[in-house]
Design brief:
Layout lengths: L6 E9 L5 H10 L3 E4 L3 H13 L8 E4 L12 H4 L3 E2 L16 E8 L1
Parallel strand pairs: 2-3, 3-4
Antiparallel strand pairs: 1-5, 2-5
């Protein structure tokens, strides 16, 4: 990503059961254009709701998510996932960080 002129402006790890308000506020404060997240469905619904309510998608922000399937779309309002990019099945090639059990990573980037 950096080879193409992008810049990573933040990265966070947190427990699965988390209030994402401060995470979303931090993302908005960076001016990130793209958020790459690996939040699993337990926390994905509230994250998308808070992300939408903060105006990220309205300002043409792009969300890339690896941890959802088409059934997830039945759980959330369409406007919360409008334009979502995903790569279902990518988890088969991912590994977990044994130093951070029970935590997931959300990464925000600015192009």
């Amino acid at each position: 990503m950096t080879a193409r002129g992008g810049e990573i402006v933040g990265e966070q790890c947190f427990p699965l059961d988390h209030d994402y308000e401060s995470v979303v506020a931090g993302i908005m404060a960076t001016g990130a254009d793209v958020v790459f997240n690996t939040i699993v469905p337990l926390g994905l619904t509230p994250f998308f709701a808070q992300h939408h309510d903060a105006g990220f998608i309205a300002r043409d922000g792009q969300v890339v998510c690896t941890c959802f399937d088409e059934n997830f779309f039945n759980l959330v309002p369409t406007e919360h996932v409008e334009g979502l990019l995903g790569c279902p099945g990518s988890g088969a090639r991912c590994s977990t960080d044994p130093a951070r059990p029970g935590q997931v990573r959300a990464r925000s980037v600015r192009e």
